[in-house]
Write a structure and sequence with these properties.
By secondary structure, this protein is of the alpha/beta class. It has a single domain, classed as Nucleoside phosphorylase domain (Rossmann fold, 3-Layer(aba) Sandwich). The chain has seven helices and 13 strands. Helix 2 (136-148) packs across helix 5.
Length: 290
């Protein structure tokens, strides 16, 4: 099966718009999971359709722990998105990933604790594999696009997802370093999990803003420091997105993630909850209509 590309772009701190989108318009999307972070800006760059969603809303009004990730992913799925490129500001947990560098995340450790993390549940149980939580194809394209934009890029890395909204303690920061984590942030989980449940290949570009607080000889990270680097990273991020969209092959070959729910649904058809099935009308339509 082959299709055209429709790239969903979830913009994090510092990325509130995408340059050069043609035929652009803001679209309000209703979802059974509540309101997304904002309207979605749809259009195209070249021949590629795109849909941009500011994760924190325009004006950065939504705290990390209050982002409605289910509504965000559902909204992108309803708009026909085929793949998701997420952009996030992150702290570095290792010396050789300094502020200003980009990490293309390929693994996660999830320390969030108060966020709905699945579209499924009692009445329609499903278990998707998260062993390889990102799309290798899209991640490779994102790494190439970031390098072409002039960024210093690490093509792999483990992201520690913390609850926030407070920054880490020094003890936590050092613990995460012992675990082998490379970067830390507050928003990629459950976003990446939900993208997988919606059969949407997902890649994450982490824009390093600071060294978290593990460096004893330095002052702890604060918002002023982060915002200064966020502004410096934003132009590179916008050019990375544009490079990626313009570099996509004309034909989108099918991904195994497109059909990952085939082996994930557990609940027998006769035992499925109609109310939950109705809420799954976008994210699981392909398998539930068979």
């Amino acid at each position: 099966m082959v299709n055209g590309w429709t790239i969903g772009i979830i913009g994090g701190s510092g990325l509130y718009a995408i340059d050069g989108i043609e035929d652009g318009r803001w679209v309000d999307v209703e979802t059974p999971w509540g309101r997304p972070s904002d309207a979605v800006f749809t259009g195209r760059i070249g021949n590629v359709r795109c849909a941009f969603l500011p994760r924190h809303g325009r004006g950065h009004r939504i705290a990390p722990d209050a982002i409605n990730a289910r509504a965000n992913i559902d909204a992108l799925k309803r708009l026909g998105v085929t793949d998701i490129l997420a952009i996030s500001s992150v702290g570095s947990l290792v010396e050789d990933r300094p502020p200003g560098s980009f990490t293309i995340v390929d693994q996660f450790i999830d320390r969030t604790k108060a966020r709905p993390s699945s579209f499924f549940g009692t009445g329609m149980v499903a278990h998707v594999s998260m062993a390889d939580p990102v799309c290798a194809r899209l991640s490779s394209l994102a790494a190439d696009a970031a390098r072409a934009a002039g960024a210093s890029v690490n093509a792999a890395g483990t992201y520690l997802a913390m609850e926030g909204p407070q920054f880490s303690t020094r003890a936590e920061s050092n613990l995460y370093r012992q675990w082998g984590c490379h970067v830390i942030g507050m928003t990629a989980m459950p976003e990446a999990r939900l993208a997988r449940e919606a059969e949407l290949p997902y890649a994450l570009v982490g824009m390093v803003t600071d060294y978290d607080c593990w460096r004893e000889e330095e002052t702890a990270v604060d918002v002023a420091q982060v915002l200064m680097q966020v502004d410096a990273n934003a132009a590179l991020a916008r050019q990375t997105v544009r490079n990626l969209l313009l570099s996509l092959p004309p034909v989108r070959q099918a991904s195994p993630i497109d059909t990952c729910l085939d082996a994930a649904l557990i609940t027998a058809p006769a035992a499925r909850d109609p109310a939950l099935l109705a809420r799954l009308d976008a994210v699981a339509r392909r398998v539930l209509r068979r």
